Amino acid sequence: MSDHLDDRLAAKPVSRTRETLQTLMANKLAVAGLIALTILVFVGIFGETIAPYGINEIDIPNRLTGPSGTHWFGTDDLGRDVFSRVIVAARVSLQVGFIAVGFALVVGVPIGLVAGYYRGGIDSFLMRMMDVLFSFPAILLAIAILAVLGPGVGNAMIAIGLVYTPIFARITRGSVLVVSEEVYVRAARSIGAGNRRIIARHILPNVMAPIIVQTTLSLAFAILSEAALSFLGLGVQPPNPAWGRMLAEGRNFFQQAPWMGIFPGLAILVTVMAFNFVGDGLRDALDPKQKSVIESRGQSV
Amino acid sequence: MTAPVLQVRDLQVRFGTKRGVANVVNGISYDLHAGETLAIVGESGSGKSVSVLALMGLLPQPPAAVAGSVLYHGDELLGLSPKEWRGIRGRGTAMIFQDPMTSLNPVRTVGYQLTEPMALHLGLKGDDARQRAIELLDLVGIPSPEARIDDYPHQLSGGMRQRVMIAMGLACDPDVLIADEATTALDVTTQAQITELVDELQERVGMAVIWITHDLGVVASIADRVHVMYGGRFMEQAGVDALYATPRHPYTEGLLGSLPMPGADRPERLVTIPGLPPDPVAMPAGCPFAPRCGYSDGDRCVGTVPAMESVGAGHDSACHYPLGVVNG
Q1: How far is residue A67's CA from residue A49's CA, in Å, rounded to a whole number?
Q2: Residues in contact with A301: Cβ distance below 8 Å, sequence separation at least 6, in sequence order
Q3: Using an 8 Å Cβ cutoff, are A93 and A45 in contact?
Q4: Bridge-partner residues for B310, per DSSP?
Q5: C-alpha span between B76 and B54 (Å, rounded)
Q6: Nearest CA distance, B106 vs chain A (angstrom)
Q7: What is the structure's pLDDT at B266?
Q8: For A210, which of A220, B109, B310, B327 is 20 to 30 Å away at the CA?
Q9: Does A11 lie at the interface with B, CB-CB under 8 angstroms?
Q10: Measured between CB atoms, does A16 come within 8 Å of chain B?
């Protein structure tokens, strides 16, 4: 009897992905973050074309001029257009963010899957290694790695990626510990599925939610880390523009030309906030606990 | 009679725990023939689920240690390599679990989960697999299977999910279907539908079924033979009618006595069995039921484990003083 009722209730299949997207779209901050990110990615791809001036176009007579119609964000100590440099620097920031977090995902998630699924000795070994990495303050570890590898954008990506690897390993392992106890994992084994198949086809899709959320939030932190490293001169090398570098350069002229530091700083702020808003929105949309709270509230009203 | 599909001999399962070794299954033996339904009844912790998980090779070793012999069509299963086990699971033996709410993967469609065993064992993929999945859904009585196949588990009711689980179990025509408390989480109407379905499918496909339950009502409706399990041992084994009519073991008598029977001539209060099941870490030296048994002599019962002995045609009881049998 109950079967017929369910027939009508579940007339149209709604996948989890669609449900998640609907919840996400209802969150105004997340939508604002998504819009900001879309613009950022666009700017990152077409930066050179949009920029009104070349990034290394030196114009000494017009050095340190304030924001105006010709130079929206003013000019720096060499007369270079700050607006153009901020726009072009978006690419390297996003690149470092995506590649570093991608590295952390590709290394950290498999470590977490193996540790959480097989447990025992391999779990202890892998997670103790992650603990060692995790025990260093993030930026200090990145600086140490760059001290070994040498400064540069590529090495900064590896350093930031390594710093974020243990976070993904831990989050994945925690979820795998829970999911691998589920009956459907045992059921998959009972039809003859092997360990690798169970991990890839049954466990991984069920632990994706926290990983996705962590990815978005980590992107924000990775971009912040890149800015910090470039600020310290360990990331992007001159004369290429990077927000962190520009902050560092602007520091020397903060009294005369605050715009040199303010605009790259704002760019960092907007980017990091955009990723955080999207990350928070995704967490609310994907976390079933949060969801049930909201739903039960909705029912009681 | 033809050779049994499954021959279990002296199956033992132990777990290493912090408190010591837990003897969960202590030497059970039985034969399972094609087309037969064997019920294993017992209360929680009697070892019935663990005993069938051992048959499927689903107990992680360690912490579990499995001993004895399980012959599937004459071939020993215990000691197979993980790869060899994968060839048996789903193909030769399949299993349905207790709670249909958690035994389907929530992020995979019904179709995916139904076709997975086909891809693993039969090399069936794409449209052929999908076609067979639709046929299976139809076979287990799911209306409009063409539409349901793309549903996610959360869109189905408990009864329908259990039907999907059964379809998944049947996907590769196994010889043995193990139903581990398969109807316990369902309401009574759905329970009846599922037992009926398994019964009907069994007649059509000719597979053997091991039905694990604590529900004597379910047993009466589907089983051919019943094994009563307690403290990791079989206490009594008989055809279903003989067991209900003339229980030969005090534990079976207690179980049946605690069952409400409408219209039957019974005392007003239901009988309860005093005490608790034995602790698997500290099993009694003699009959595991002796500490709770009203007939215990306090001597032989406590000191010696009673052997399984015949008390009638196809009826065995593991009791020093089987009920209704004059003992010399």
Answers
A1: 21
A2: none
A3: no
A4: B316
A5: 13
A6: 8
A7: 56
A8: B109
A9: no
A10: yes
Q: What is the pTM of this model?
A: 0.79
Residue with tokens 């007369």: A79
Q: What is the pLDDT of residues B17-36, one digit of tens each?
A: 888 888 888 888 888 888 88
Report the CATH superfamily, name and number, of domain A52-300.
Answer: MetI-like (1.10.3720.10)
Q: Is B157 on the interface with A (CB under 8 A)?
A: yes
**Cβ-based neighbours of B150, under 8 Å, separated by 6 or more:** A13, B109, B110, B111
CA A8 to chain centre: 41
DSSP output for B73-109: TTEE-TT--HHHHHHHBTTTEEEE-S-TTTSS-TTS-
Give the residue ranges of DSSP H helices in chain A: 2-9, 16-25, 28-50, 82-118, 120-135, 138-149, 153-179, 183-190, 195-197, 204-231, 243-251, 259-286, 288-300
B86 lies within 8 A of chain A by CB: yes
pLDDT digits (tens, 9 = 90+) for A144-154: 999 999 888 89
* Beta bridge mates, B38: B210, B225
Cα distance between residue B216 and residue B261, in whole Å? 11
Q: Which of B75, B61, B83 is nearest to B4 (CA)?
A: B75
> Which residues on chain B are in Cβ contact (under 8 Å) with A15?
152
Answer whether B82 touches A (CB < 8 Å). Answer: yes
Is the per-residue pLDDT at A14 higher than 60?
no
Cα→Cα distances A260→A61, A63, A71, A83, A227, Å? 17, 11, 12, 10, 15
Residue B109: partners with Cβ closer than 8 Å, 6 or more residues away: B149, B150, B151, B152
Contact A184 B105 (CB under 8 A): yes
pLDDT beyond 70 at B277: yes
> Residue A243 in contact with residue A268, Cβ under 8 Å?
yes
Distance of CA A163 to the CA centre of its chain: 13
Q: How far is A225 from chain B, CA to nearest CA, in Å?
A: 35
Q: Residue ranges of the domains in chain A? A: 52-300
Measured CA to CA, the distance from residue A78 to residue B23 in angstroms comes to 82
Residues in chain B closer than 8 A to A183 (CB atoms) = 97-99, 102-103
